Amino acid sequence: MTAEKRKFTRQSASIAGTLVLGDQGEFDCVISDFSQGGMLVILTGAGQLGRLRGLLKVDKRATVIYQLEGRNIAVDVSVAHVSRQGIGLQLAQQDSRFVLNIQRAARLFAVEQSAPAVSIVAPTQQPLDPLSKAQLIKSTNHHVAEFFNRCFPEYIGTLKDALITEADRQRSQTAQQPFFDTLGIIRTQQMHLVPDLSAKISADAAEAADGRFIEAWQARKPRNERAGLSLVEKNEFEDWLVIRKAISKAEIILREQLLELQLRLDAAFGSPDASHCYNPYSPSALCYGFAEVTRDWRLTGKVQVVAFKVLYDVLLSNLATLYRSLNRLFIEAGVLPDIDVEQYLTEQAIRERKASDPSRDQESPQAEAKITPPVPPPEPQQPVQADAPKTAPGDAKATPSAFNTATRLWSAHKRLNNGTAGRLTLPDEPAEPPQPSRATLSALQQMQQQLLAQHADLAKPGALKQLIEASDPGVQLSEFEEDSADMIENLFDNIVQSDQVADDLRDEVRKLEVPVLRVMLKDQSLFTADFHPARQAVNHIALLSDQGSTHAAHNKAAVINAITTILESSDDEGFTRSLLILDQLVAKEKRLVERNLRRIAEAADGQQRIRKAHQLIDRELVRRLGSRPVPAPVLELLEHGWKGLMMLCLFRQGDDSRSWDLTLAIVDQLVARTLSDAEEASGNLIRIDALLRLIGKGLAKVHDAEGRHEQLLENIENLLNGQAFASLVYRSTTEPEEEPNENDATALRWIKRAKGLRKGQWLECLAPPQSPVLYQLAWVADDFSQFILANQQGKKVAELSLHEMAQKLRHRSLSALEHAALPAVEQGLDTLVQKIYEKLAFEASHDQLTGLCTRREFSQCIAHSVANAKEHQRRHTLIFIDILQFKLVNNTCGYEAGDRLLQELSRSLQAVAGDDAIVGRIGAAEFGVVVPLDAEVEGFQLASAIKVEIESTRFEEGGHSFVINTAMALLGFDHTNDRIMELLRTVEVAAEISKKAGRRKIQVAHPGDARLEERNEVMNWVTRINRALDENSLKLRCQAINPIQGSVLPHYEILLTVVDDAGNHLPPGEFIMAAEEFNRMAAVDRWVIEAVFGWMTEHLPGLEHLGGFSINLSGHSLNDETFTDFLFDALIRYPVPRDKLIFEITETTAVANLEDASDFINEMRGIGCRFSLDDFGVGQSSFSYLKRLPVDFIKIDGSFVVNIAEDPVDFALVRSITEMGHFLGKKVIAEYVADAAILEAVSSIGVDYAQGFHFGTHVMLDQLVLAPPVTSEIDV
User: Fold this and answer.
1) Which of these three, 729, 753, 770, is where a domain ends?
2) Strand partners of residue 883
3) 1190 in a domain, yes or no?
4) Which one of 140, 319, 1088, 1185 has the largest count of C-beta atoms within 10 Å of its C-beta?
5) Residues 862, 864: Cα–Cα separation, whole Å
6) CB-CB contact of 1122 with 1084 (8 Å)
């Protein structure tokens, strides 16, 4: 049966399972593919299919059992067909959860099967002997029990408070009763929680270590339960959803630590056939174990929701600490001590790319190893696919993209500034690589000799081209040669301006511009080859020029010698010859850095062991002594000898040793004998003389620096024999960790981000006025209590607590970087792309005549001022200036005179307004100023100063003298005024009033002056919003986003429409404006998501014909702490394919909430969703911002697209955004594509998708027809 004839599309899989054929028995099988309607299984036993063929009649009932997260899932099926390929099985009953579960099982099984085979798992890893296995699993179980002992007391207390709080929210006593019932049960059962859960996890872990877990687990399950015919029992489904949500969230945030632990479990306990070892400490194991041991707590319905939410907050979200400790135990046992998870992820991605068909692209987030991968790859037979992810900047494969991108951006920049941008034409790609002229090469050779003789200086801007032309009057640089010289000069600007390059070597390094340009003109693979001696030599020289290096003085001579060798060479082999020495020096430098980092880590590990030992000793003593008065001899014994013995036992034998247990037992004996309220039975006490002997033997093992041991022992003997001593309360000696304010949600988010930092992470330190400095995270404590930063030489520069790290991240004095430790050339190219793009963006957003902001950019500046006012509670002033004599000057003296007038006025405005002000030309002769001043005093004074400055200066031109008059208005605004365009309209209207009133006074407006009637209308909208949500009178439309080239599927943007009482569809603009202003937009977002998810669930089979739905999210949702939980709940309730979900956020919203947006995007992309950045270009379209936002699509704002066929500035900006987007591995969408001319323009630039009325109008979602596309490529 062909793929086209099937009702449902198949997805490949490889899941081990069991086929149950009633009385005929059970047979091992593999589920090789599945669809919405059934599956294909292959029997694994030799000859089994032949023996069973006669029994496998069509429609015969059977059951397939497979595993999902430690549970058996049984699916009721019937035989559809039998062939050599396997047994086709049809679901006995359609179940929307079937695909969701089997997809997850397929991904997990794929991870299980691939993990042991990765190249970093050393084949020489020796299996542990039985004794070592037993000792290792005992240690890990002990750590888990300790973790439970620390976390569950807090869990119980938090849960009780949460249950009481939730009970208070219920509206009836009946609804409250389950919460109070559970509270009563917890009070009587809580003491059993930790022992029972520890025992269960420990037993499962011991069985997993022996390879007996699956068999033992199967044996514990009742036979009739294994043979059940439902995927998930109906009465258990809601409970399963709650547990599943907690597991999914934990797996997402812990996937790297889980992967590292899984690889070590496989190496330590995996069977000889390399099968996957069950992880008894996974979030899944802990959650289901918790559910099992608390079965008597009656955790159902809302009570269970509260219980598992608290479990996630208190225990699951802190599992990273436990996993670090467990991984350390495996390392100490010699299990994969040198594993590198980042290397594993990279190698796995490379293997996946090599294994995939190059013609098959996939438009999903970059593949990465996950414990819970987001979605399965598309099927090989799928005719229409999505686009392959681009390589991120920073790796070796990004270099060609960086250089080519920078070249094209530079070309666009030049053409725009030269006025030759043209209408829509781009330079054709040459059939053959351009060749340099002999004269140019000869001139460069002469320049090398001049540089050797110190007769040339390359420090001035443009010096490289000037010196080439000056060296030989006959040299005429071609466009190719000129662009190449510009690129090389800009590249070396970025390299030598780095603070890392020593000041006295910068001019020396610049000399390499000439030989590098020579090589580049002859060999354009310089920046694209995997290895090129010239590029490698420059990278080495830059690294050795580091002024912070321990070998800086020695390296300086080597750097100068290498540069001299290169300049003296006439055949470009100087680079290769220089590498003979440079390679050795660089290797030495890297070894030094690695040694420094290793010493930092070793010292910190030692301090951490001491700190943990003190904490453990203190915790044990506090638990035994509490706040009760303790006789002084006991406290003196503890402080002057016994704690030292406890520390010695911990370091030598560990906390699971008999020596450690004995030190605690002696403390218990002293407590039982000396504390009056001790309840220990006398039968448990040992004789006094025996106790004294044990104490004496223990003290003898500890150095008696003060000579007090004999007196201590004597005092203890007297105490035990009844002598009275003073009593004191034991005081904890460890400092409590600084706890964040639980009510400060922002602080808690930054602490979570700090905990997300990993060893080796690069951070940028900003300490104005100094230039940014790069630091590396050299060490992180297992419990995240301490962070150590090192500089690029591997020397320690700072130690920060968790609170201090979170504060520095929050205030942006430290920023985590994705790619920092790049070689000099690659880093220089990356910076070059950023600079050229931002220069183009600046030119497109600023008036070419005056250099001031355009109206569009000025409006965005007002928006950023409003955001600033919200963040810092500041007031701002908006000033509007209308120049009244401008037309008179134009008509009298000509347009050139008018241009000069505007330029003079611009300079005057900027001088008077000051550095804190933003000045824009927002009309032909109209200017705007926004400044962070209060309007009533300082703002009005500034406006008055501007008016005086302009009107007191006469404009002289061609014998004419003009007095310039103005009509001015101002208004003040703060964080409560967020309707940007209305602010600008209000002040413009006020200026008109000033003009009519005689122009003498500055008209003071207020944000509400011009909108009283509109305000009343907006208030009416509040009622409409609530009614629309309650009565379901909102409707959804969709508009296609079509691929321009390639066989990829279109996706659709979801658009909101409002239906009035008469059934008419109203424009949603006012509705959304009111919803935003009155904080109802988050509720609207949720309504849209529920509606789209519901529609997708009803049309699951047809979703294969589209790329997905793009759903707009507001800033209110991004700032809503509960929104992520809502999405997880919705994704569990609706089995929609997550790779079909694209969430769209505006650039302004994303930048205003940069860290929150990045966290949200990363979390949702981790489960397979994709993201689009809307309205790109109208806000802070910074290259650096975009690098930090892991979106999949950039949607260029339509205002740049609508006139692209005629406007060269818009054409250049759209081209630069496209180039930059592709460099960062993102697809680019152009909206407002209204006709063929616009489509032709965006196609010539390389835009990936087009959206607009050229392809048709919007379609109601409930009328969307899901059918295979007739063609997947647009004809342009």
Assistant:
1) 729
2) 966
3) yes
4) 140
5) 5
6) no
Instruction: Evaluate whether residue 755 is within a structural domain.
Output: no
pLDDT value at 44 more than 80:
no
The two three-digit tokens of residue 415, written as one number: 């053409």
Q: Are residues 580 and 463 in the same domain?
A: yes
- Which has more confidence, 387 or 272? 272
CATH number at residue 934: 3.30.70.270
Q: How confident is the model at residue 400 (pLDDT cuts 50, 70, 90)?
A: very low
SS3 label, residue 728: strand
Can you point out the beta strands (E) in 401-541?
A: none
Length of the chain, in residues: 1276
Contacts of 1139 (CB under 8 A, 6+ apart): 364, 374, 375, 1108, 1168, 1169, 1170
Q: In Å, what is the CA distance from 1234 to each residue of 426, 792, 1205?
A: 22, 52, 11
Detail the DSSP E strand segments found in 888-987.
918-921, 926-931, 954-957, 960-963, 966-973
Nearest to 805 by CA among 872, 839, 757: 757
Mean pLDDT calculated for residue range 1122-1149: 86
Tell me which of 61, 95, 117 is where a domain ends.
117
Looking at the structure, tell me whether residues 161 and 264 fall in a common domain: yes
CA–CA distances in Å: residue 929 to residues 382, 901, 908, 909: 56, 18, 12, 9
Do residues 1041 and 1153 both lie within one domain?
Answer: yes
How many domains does the chain divide into? 6
926: confidence class by pLDDT, cuts 50, 70, 90: very high
**Residue 1237 counted as domain residue:** yes
- Residue 1092 and residue 955 share a domain: no
Tokens, residue 420:
């030759």
Q: What is the pLDDT of residues 1069-1084, one digit of tens each?
A: 667 777 776 778 888 8
- 102 and 210 assigned to the same domain: no
Residue 878: give the domain boundaries: 846-1007
Tokens found for residue 217? 């687990």
CA nearest neighbour of 503 among 452, 459, 545: 545
Helix or strand or coil: residue 1144?
strand
> The tokens of 556 are what?
């300086």
CB atoms within 10 A of CB 429: 5
784 closest CA partner among 257, 153, 157: 257
Helix %, strand %, coil % of the chain (to 5): 55, 15, 30
Tokens coding 855: 């109206």
Co-location of 169 and 223 in the same domain:
yes
Selection from 862, 884, 991 nearest residue 930 by Cα? 862
pLDDT tens by residue, 238-281 = 566 678 778 877 876 777 788 888 888 888 887 655 456 888 99
Dist. CA 250–CA 153, nearest whole Å: 20
827 domain-assigned: no
The pLDDT assigned to 1274 comes to 56
3-class secondary-structure state, position 1175: strand
Distance CA 986, CA 984 (A): 5
Residues 6+ apart with CB under 8 A from 1116: 1076, 1079, 1081, 1082, 1085
Cβ neighbors of 170 (< 8 A, separation 6 or more) are: 176, 179
Report the C-alpha gap between 665 and 643 in whole angstroms: 13
Decide: 363 and 384 in contact? Cβ < 8 Å: no
Strand 966-973 vs strand 786-790: parallel, antiparallel, or unpaired?
unpaired
What is the pTM for the complete model shown? 0.62
Percent of the chain with pLDDT over 70: 80
Residue with tokens 């400095």: 773
Residues 488 and 635 placed together within one structural domain of the fold: no
Task: Look at residue 406 in the predicted model and tell me its pLDDT.
Answer: 77
Same domain, 1060 and 1114: yes
Write the CB contacts of 983 (distance below 8 Å, at least 6 apart in sequence). Answer: 862, 878, 971, 973, 977, 1007
Query: Residues 1115, 1116, 1118, CA angle at the centre, nearest 5°?
Result: 60
